[in-house]
Amino acid sequence: MEKTGQKSVDQDADSIHKKRDAIWPLVLFYIHLNILGVYGIYVLFASATWPTILFTSVLTLFGTLGVTVGVHRLWAHRTFTASKPLKVFLMLCQTTAGQGSIYSVVQAHRLHHAKFQQNEDPYYSKHSFMYAQVRGGLLRYSPQQEELLKEIDMSDLESDAIVMFQKKFYVLLYIFVNILLSVNTPFQYFGDSLSASMFVGFWLRSLIVINLGNLVNSSHFIWSLHKGFKPADSNSIFLITKSYWPQFHYLLPRDYQSGEFGSYATGIGSAMIRVFAALDWAKDLKTYGSVAVRQGLTKAVETGRPIVECIEEEVGLEENALPANHFLNREKFM
């Protein structure tokens, strides 16, 4: 009887250790976000002026770039290095996304990768799209996840003055960059109504950017391929076009060309990183060539060594063989 009672106590303690409670102010914000954001669609077509629509579209693009190019590819996975002006620009863009500070989002995303399709993943990658897209962001971390977050190496961000500045002053930056800029500009400078400025400039824009940003942690449910899937051409589709996007990204995340929305090399994020490289704002772009992936897989099979280690080794050899003036490894891209 004592063993049974002790077992029950241990199970209760373990359940409490893993329990996640709702963040009710955030839940209420999401309810308003969806209701007022959808109403913003009506206001967009009914009364918003073209300057407001164009300005809001630009802010929406900037917010999306802040999440995808900034948080995801630069700070979370270090797929390239950025100059200080580019970091400041991406930091401000990310602030307009309203997802929380760069530091907190990156920390959670790194845990998401470390515990992908495990119970400890804060974005429920084992469950469903709606769990990952919505529920994961509305719950507090469990005591177990809080402990795991402390184990995530964040030393690179802690040494980044721009990231830590945003973390310290996030609330003020959020008010000025995400709320006042988006609402006050159409109202004061474009002569638009306060209704259009609020419902289109803030609520509709926030609805779009937050949901696009959440796809970073949930899109594998949309574009993931089932194990029984047989491509019509051959399995070389993985090596040539990387159509197995989620499998590729979660195995080899340090590729600047891996799009968040199921694409590879063709998305706006990848294009913008190449533009930044052309402007000499982005350097050390990391990517995995098809030949290096194929040779790394072959080496892993032949030697029994870890797949990722073998592929990384082949990528290094491939980079060393590139011409000295190639934009992936030269000091200045012209």
How many beta-strand segments?
Answer: 2
Question: What is the multimeric organization of the chains shown?
Answer: single chain
Mean pLDDT score: 85
Count of DSSP H/I helices: 17
What is the C-alpha radius of gyration, as a whole number of Å? Answer: 22 Å
Strand content: under 5%
Q: Could you spell the SSE succession in H and E letters?
A: HHHEHHHHHHHHHHHHEHH
Helix content: 55-70%
**Which residues form runs of ≥5 with pLDDT under 50?**
231-242
Which outline best applies? Answer: globular
Termini Cα gap? 76 Å
Largest sheet: 2 strands, antiparallel
Strand order of the largest sheet: 1-2
Structural class: mainly alpha
Description of the molecule:
The chain is mainly alpha-helical and 334 residues long. Residues 231-242 have low confidence and may be disordered. The protein has a two-stranded antiparallel sheet. The termini are far apart. It has helices spanning 2-18, 24-46, 50-76, 84-95, 102-114, 129-133, 143-151, 155-158, 161-168, 170-189, 194-218, 220-223, 236-240, 245-251, 268-278, 290-303, 307-320, and strands at residues 81-82, 282-283. The radius of gyration is 22 Å and the shape is globular. The protein has a domain at 21-219. Helix content is 65%, strand content 1%. The protein has 17 helices and two strands.
List keywords for this structure.
mainly alpha; FA_desaturase_dom; two-stranded antiparallel ribbon; 1% strand; globular; 334 residues; lipid biosynthesis
Write the layout of secondary structure elements.
Blueprint: H1 2-18, H2 24-46, H3 50-76, E1 81-82, H4 84-95, H5 102-114, H6 129-133, H7 143-151, H8 155-158, H9 161-168, H10 170-189, H11 194-218, H12 220-223, H13 236-240, H14 245-251, H15 268-278, E2 282-283, H16 290-303, H17 307-320
Antiparallel strand pairs: 1-2
